[in-house]
Here is the input.
Amino acid sequence: MEGSLKPMDAEQLREYGHRMVDFIADYYKSIESFPVLSQVKPGYLTELLPESAPNDPECLQDIFDDILQKIIPGITHWQSPDYFAYFPSNSSSSWILGRNAQCWIEHCGTFRQGWVIQGTASEAILVVLLAARDKILRKVGKKSLEKLVVYASDQTHSALQKACQIAGIFPENLRVLKTDLTSNYALSLEVVSEAISSDLSAGLIPFFICATVGTTSSAAVDPISELGKLAKAFNMWFHIDAAYAGSACICPEYRHYIDGVEEADSFGMNAHKWFLTNFDCSVLWVQASQENAVVDFKDWQIPLGRRFRSLKLWLVLRLYGVANLQSYIRNHIRLAEQFEQLITSDSRFEYASALFPPNDQDNGYKLNHGLLDAVNSSGKIFLSHTGISSCAVGAPLTEDRHIKTAWQVLQEQASTLLKPY
Ligand code: PLP
Here is the structure.
């Protein structure tokens, strides 16, 4: 099973693509046979869907049948010739073809229990920050905005800083707390606790902690359980940004990284990163009151209108099955480990968790940047730079041979660069 999933199988794409186009064309041909306005009750779908994703792949025909029998009844047919409400929302066969091309080039919806699909992790962070801000301001009064304080590590994605800016959090009240190698770049509980105590003594109002599971630069994992308890003790909102590494938690052996997740007020993960679902699909869970059967999703996101993003995620889950998705993730982790072994087997390289290996002039900065430029301008592989590490294995078509090639390119360019040394 390991590595057997072929998420970009061209022949399967051809076959399924033809069948999908037939399915869509049949829908448009029979559109007048459906009630224009959906006739079902809010929440009807929850009972029709299984509790969990299938372990093994399902066949496309079963999915088509479910779309017709379960999903379509919940749809109001904006493209129906009998639709005269609101305003036009034109679709066309050219658009459908264009959208497919867009999916190729680019590289939930109606369920309850507090899940919603945002476009991006940045939007998800902004939305929960706004919710947290309004919640605390309702308690302490609108005039206290300038006292609100946000806590995160120096490894947190810049999306948080942007969200703070948009939400009107005073820039000096975003605590970017220092991390280092001793904690593998994870937030230290003591550092956060000290910052909170010192802010409370200064009359400020700590209200939001953003923890990350898999930071962009260092793949660091903040201590979820401890931070969650701390947030609760001080009545703060606790958000977990698992945009990148959250996908790995589909494998039970990596799930311990989110132990304590039940303490969170919100949790976000990008299916469009490492979960075989095209951009945009950022899954957000929010601890929400379940008093109303109808969740008004327009209030859980920035725009009013929403794309039906859950459909593509649903197809990924059903057509691949959980077991295949798990082995897909495991295979990438195996390839990354293989790359690490290659690095450690060559004495000119160092597997670094801190920036460049020291030398007496510039800490290796020029040499490493020269290597990165040389590798990238070779056109053979593409690496990105970061202050900490630089090789992210996770593309759908990456196999063992690509890892070997990447390593060869790095070695060749390093040999060229090291000649004058
Ligand atoms: N959070 C983390 C940990 C990320 O790695 C990224 C993107 O790399 C983001 C947030 C931002 O993601 P998006 O582009 O979906 O806003």
Residues 107-113, 354-358 have pLDDT under 50 and may be disordered. The first helix runs from residue 10 to 29. The CA atoms of residues 336 and 393 lie 6 Å apart. The pocket of pyridoxal-5'-phosphate is lined by residues 120-122, 157, 159, 212, 215-216, 241, 243-244, 270, 282 (CB under 6 Å).
